[in-house]
UniProtKB/TrEMBL annotation:
GO terms for molecular function: carboxy-lyase activity; pyridoxal phosphate binding. Its cofactor is pyridoxal 5'-phosphate. The gene is LOC100795274. It comes from the Eukaryota. GO terms for biological process: amino acid metabolic process; carboxylic acid metabolic process. One of its GO terms (cellular component) is cytoplasm. Pfam families: Pyridoxal_deC (PF00282). This is Tyrosine decarboxylase. It comes from Glycine max (Soybean). SUPFAM superfamilies: PLP-dependent transferases (SSF53383). Keywords: Decarboxylase, Lyase, Pyridoxal phosphate. Belongs to the group II decarboxylase family. The modification N6-(pyridoxal phosphate)lysine is found at K303.
Length: 498
């Protein structure tokens, strides 16, 4: 056995084996239970207690992979995967990732790998144009884009810039006065980022949303929150508006929210982690109308844009404010290109120094499929969601809980269906029919996921437990969606008839 860990011949041989393994995996993926049913700690019993001292052949390792690891995998690429949000992989996304890993370069600044930086700026420009982002967000305007790992990072990066911008005006000692605004539907990433950068927990304002307005953040609710804070001498700093909330894909009204924020000199970040991808379709672009009033905008290409994890696209109007907060200078990083101020040094646009060549993934995806096919891919999922929604509506025991925006359907068994069938149980066991409905819907979800045939997850909004069917796995077709509804109905039959 060769002792060179990067021997080209062995690389070729073993690399082909892994590709074959994955091709077989994708071929057979629908046969696996979508949600893994292993017990906590299952792997410890199957693995040796100590790392091997001597080399083992790839054949043995692959056998253990199939026998021990695969059973503990939840199959996000399964066509029957409808949980959380999709993680839509593709051949192009995979190959781009593979190339990035193969080059294994560390492109922290321009000179450390010029193509990595330049390709990233180019794909961010391409994607920004396809999304019809205002020029102010693009390099061709006065803005620019960067590829980060996740939305959590995009939020942290923009929040730091927003914090320092305000503190440069009011003095760093006043950090305890800064307020961050979110809605009760905003992703928890904002609270975490606020915590990390020293915003006081009591200054994270969680504005309430309501079912009657589809759980969107209302400008008037925001205004009244801000008024109260300003009267107390606090300083509005950052608003995170969401296009496509995680629970129900609610769309916050960007135009009016940005207008309010502008009055108070607040930074607005638009988190379009899931729904942003859909905005490459002209018919969905209106979801981000008003984005011109925001300071930054991000989406996760690893959710619904055929780009394998991880890949968050962030555009900012004023890169200088981000760079001001995050730039680092060390003697060993000094170089004439950076000194010339003619290049982008992406290390100053992110938390970490080292960074991966993510642009290859986006470049391969855009080139391999073309914008036309990407649009059709997104549309096909929205059509499938419409089909699923139609099926839910035909069953009178169920309701669509909030209007569907894209390819996520939020539904539940109606409280009245539970009350009718449960008879005395409602009065005996539960306080209200809503509580009973929550219990039954939770049971239903556990039951369908236990079948292994599909995997869906839940949200709790306005006190109601709802089941989310998020359509967007790359391999999902209409037949899978119809089958998924059959599974739901069959399990509902069993649960409601007991
Ligand atoms: C998924 C999601 C996030 C978190 O994304 P990460 O990339 O995992 O950090 C944030 N916001 C919204 C609206 C999301 O849907």
């Amino acid at each position: 056995m060769t002792m060179n860990p990067l021997d080209p011949q062995e690389f070729r041989r073993q690399g082909h084996m892994i590709i074959d393994f994955l091709a077989d995996y994708y071929q057979n993926i629908a046969n696996y239970p979508v949600l893994s049913h292993v017990e906590p700690g299952y792997l410890r019993e199957l693995m040796p207690s100590f790392a091997p001292l001597n080399p083992e052949p790839i054949e043995t390792i692959l056998r253990d992979l199939q026998q021990h690891i695969v059973p503990g995998i939840t199959h996000w690429q399964s066509p029957n995967y409808f949980a959380y949000f999709p993680s839509s992989g593709s051949t192009a996304g995979f190959l781009g990732e593979m190339l990035s890993t193969g080059f294994n370069l560390v492109g922290f600044n321009w000179v450390s790998s010029p193509a990595a930086t330049e390709l990233e700026s180019i794909v961010m420009e391409w994607l920004g144009q396809v999304l019809k982002l205002p020029k102010a967000f693009l390099f061709s305007g006065s803005g620019g884009g960067v590829l980060l790992g996740t939305t959590c990072e995009a939020i942290l990066v923009t929040l730091v810039a927003a914090r320092d911008k305000v503190l440069s005006q009011i003095g760093r000692e006043n950090i305890c006065k800064l307020v961050v605004y979110v809605s009760d539907q905003t992703h928890c990433a904002v609270q975490k980022a606020a915590h990390i950068i020293g915003i006081l927990p009591k200054n994270i304002r969680v504005v309430k949303t309501m079912k009657s307005t589809s759980f969107t953040l209302l400008p008037e609710s925001l205004v009244s929150s801000i008024h109260t804070d300003v009267q107390k001498g606090l300083v509005p700093c950052y608003l995170c508006a969401t296009v496509g909330t995680t629970s129900t894909t609610a769309i916050d009204p960007l135009g009016p929210l940005c207008k309010v924020a502008k009055e108070y000199g607040m930074w607005v970040h638009v988190d379009a982690a899931y729904a942003g991808s859909a905005c490459i379709c002209p018919e969905f672009r209106h979801l981000i109308d008003g984005v011109e009033g925001a300071n930054s905008f991000s989406l996760n290409a690893h959710k619904w844009f055929l780009t394998n994890l991880d890949c968050c696209c962030l555009w900012v109007k004023d890169p200088a404010s981000v760079i001001k907060s995050l730039s680092t200078n060390s003697v060993y990083l000094e170089n004439s290109a950076s000194d010339s101020n003619q290049v982008v040094d992406y290390k100053d646009w992110q938390i970490t120094l080292s960074r991966r060549f993510r642009a290859l993934k986006v470049w391969l995806v855009l080139r391999s499929y073309g914008v036309a096919n990407l649009r059709n891919f997104l549309r096909s999922h929205v059509e499938m969601a419409k089909t699923f929604e139609g099926l839910v509506r035909m069953d009178k025991r169920f309701e669509i809980f909030v209007p569907r925006n894209l390819a996520v359907v939020c539904f539940r068994i109606l409280p009245c269906a539970v009350a009718r069938i449960g008879n005395g149980r409602v009065q005996n066991g539960y306080l209200t029919t809503e509580d009973a409905a929550n219990e039954i819907n939770r049971k239903l979800l556990d039951s369908i996921n236990g079948s292994g045939l599909v995997y869906m997850t839940h949200a709790i909004v306005g006190g109601a437990f709802v089941i989310r069917c998020a359509i967007g796995a790359t391999l999902t077709e209409k037949t899978h969606v119809i089958m998924a509804w059959k599974v739901v109905q069959e399990h509902a039959d069993t649960i409601l008839n007991h």
